[in-house]
Amino acid sequence: MLSGLSWPWLALLMAAGLALDLVLGEARRWHPLVGFGSLATRIEGALNQAPASRLRGILAWALAVLPGVALAAWIIHLAPWWLACLLHAALLYFCIGLRSLRDHTLPIALALARGNLAAARVLTSYIVSRDTRQSNETDLAKAGVESLLENGNDAVFGTLFWFLVAGGPGALLFRLVNTLDAMWGYRNERFLHFGWAAARIDDALNWIPARLTAWSYAWLGNRAQALACWKEQAPAWSSPNAGPVMAAGAGALCVALGGPAVYDGEVEQRPPLGCGKPAEGADIVRAWRLVAQAALLWLAIVGALALFSFGVFHA
């Protein structure tokens, strides 16, 4: 392990980070990722100048990501073991977003259950980039479920994977990379070249976690249908990682996602995801449960590896 942590310690600190997230939720003030977003905006404003350049995008990415990750790793390396453990758990807490997914999506399901379409449209607009002003219940339910499934990988399982690889600095690296992709990884005139590195690096770091996430969704739901949807539908999506995650998740839940959505006043016909009945408000709750159960599955697997390694070394 790059973190230098044994499996028992990884299991304990992973459980601690998840518990802190579920109990405390996102930090209301002084959240490191919020500060990072402000820093990234300033760096982009200074370096994203005409003519368009991938090289300046690579430099901006390095300036935004590498100093913070290197500093975190250096502090942990120099800290006494008990403080290093606390820092690993704290970094995981700040980087993971399991409770945040619940807090941002379940209110949409509640508004739909109460028939309050206007409130559901506003709440959904907070978590997706599509235009929700004219969306019906199915459109909003699809948006909520898709957001949960995709961000389950970005905010939870990708973070856990890189925590297992490199401890707290690994989790921090992944979330900073993922945040830059969300800020710069657009294929428009402004970011096509400047954001190229941010998008490609995020794709690379997400490749393994996305497929582990898809397998987790499949294992906990309709497995045969999830795997079939993954195989048949994921290649049609432009993102190499969102496709497997959302196709497998939709198949596991037996709901139909994808299809038309409005972006910047234009209707975009997206490839289908999953199969079965159209999404309903209650499917947002089912999707949240799938993500939460998958997090418990990962924790159980890491715990089993910890027990196995402890038994091997103490036999």
UniProtKB/TrEMBL annotation:
Keyword Kinase assigned: no
Bilayer topology term: Multi-pass membrane protein
Function: Converts cobyric acid to cobinamide by the addition of aminopropanol on the F carboxylic group.
Protein's organism: Herbaspirillum chlorophenolicum
Pfam families in the cross-refs: CobD_Cbib
Gene name as annotated: cbiB
Superkingdom as given in the UniProt entry: Bacteria
Coiled coil: none
Protein name: Cobalamin biosynthesis protein CobD
Primary location group: membrane
Keywords for the protein's UniProt record, in alphabetical order: Cell membrane, Cobalamin biosynthesis, Membrane, Transmembrane, Transmembrane helix
Family listed: Belongs to the CobD/CbiB family.
Transmembrane intervals: 6-24, 58-75, 155-177, 295-313
KW Magnesium (keyword) present: no
Metabolic or biological pathway: Cofactor biosynthesis; adenosylcobalamin biosynthesis
Compartment list: Cell membrane
